[in-house]
Amino acid sequence: MIRGKTRVATACRTKDGQIIVQRGEAENANRHPIWRLAFLRGTPALVDSLRLGYKTLMWSADIAMEGEPEQKKPTPLAYALTIAASIALAVGLFILLPSWLSGYLPFHPDKHAAGKTLWEQFIPTGPTFLYNVAEGVGRVLMLIGYILVVGRSKEVQRVFAYHGAEHKVVNGYEAGAELTVEGVKPYSRIHPRCGTSFIFLFFVVGILMHAAFGWPENVFIRFASRLLMIPLIAGVAYELIRLAGRFRDNLLLKILVFPGMLLQRLTTAEPQDDQIEVALASMRAVLTDEGVLQPEPAPAPEIPIAGLPAPEAAG
Fold first, then answer.
1. In angstroms, rounded to a whole number, what is the distance separating the alpha carbons of residues 250 and 228?
2. N or C, where is the chain less crowded by C-beta within 10 Å?
3. pLDDT (tens digit, 9 = 90+) per residue, 72-112?
4. Residue 269 pLDDT class (50, 70, 90 cuts)
5. Which of the four pLDDT bands, split at 50, 70 and 90, describes residue 59?
6. Domain ranges within the chain, ordered by starting residue
7. Global pTM?
8. What is the per-residue pLDDT across 273-305, written as a single tens digit (0 to 9) for each?
């Protein structure tokens, strides 16, 4: 799946080896201008990515099931419940659980934290900060463990390979390479604007922002504060990812996104040529729909010319 400024395309290879492409308008194309402002666009972009990713997985699953015995398709309500359950699991596993477990660490809360000003709480010192660091580290460890567990599945390994193919195609295109398998294959499967890097930055930014507001002793207040700050943290992390993609030679941004790019070693894999072909089909579709590439002309029909033998089939 490749998403451009206004268009999105998803390509999938069928069981008979053909590549089919589903094209559409990007979720952010008709977004209200206020949600395109810096630090506000992060949350809707995250929601759009989750929604688009789920739709893409469902569509590719339908393609994979073609030719199988007819099965009853899930209703829209079933889809909605599945999405809600997935979000609840992610929030519980990566947001709430590390926060709850960190509260049992043998740090002694800063007795004077309540009397500190907001500016003073930004200074990363004392047990309060240690609790927030432990919470953030716990989230990263939970994420790595989750990736390692699900990555043992052969199907997930194929998904990781297609993920790597997407990155090779995007890196190649941004470097001006020819949009062919040979043209993009030498490029890295790691990309600074990847969702994996975004998640890691989300956790890092969360440590600093949560530390600014101390460490609530009441676990329910702590949970509420973590949930309420998700949009703000997502907004900051999103802007950092955009900057890292735009200014790739900036040393500070390189250091900032390096751990997330290192984490991509787990969420991507070296793709096969046929997987790169699928990613290229998505990229060409997006570029064509956005007017960057000219549509490829359809092959002219073979019309026999009088007096000449009809062409023979190749092979």
1. 32
2. C
3. 666 778 777 888 898 899 999 999 999 999 988 887 655 44
4. very high
5. confident
6. 37-62+78-150+190-267
7. 0.82
8. 999 999 999 999 999 999 998 877 554 444 444
**What letter does residue 114 receive in the DSSP assignment?**
G
Mean pLDDT of 161-177: 96
List strands edge to edge, sheet with 7-13.
2-3, 7-13, 19-25
* Residue 22, strand partner residues: 10
Q: For the residues of 235-246, what is the DSSP string, one character each?
A: HHHHHHHHHHHH
Interhelix angle 154-174/273-289, rounded to 10 degrees, is: 50
Report d(CA 96, CA 226) in Å as an integer: 8
- Count of C-beta atoms within a 10 Å radius of residue 245: 17
Give every CB contact of residue 226 below 8 A, 6+ residues apart in sequence. 95, 96, 99, 206, 210
Give the span between the Cα atoms of 1 and 11, in whole angstroms: 6
Number of C-alpha atoms within 13 angstroms, CB side, residue 258? Answer: 8
pLDDT, average across residues 37-46: 85
**DSSP per-residue string spanning 274-303:** HHHHHHHHHHHHHHHHTTSSPPPPPPPP--
d(CA 215, CA 212): 9
How far is CA 235 from its chain centroid?
A: 15
β 7-13/2-3 pair status: antiparallel
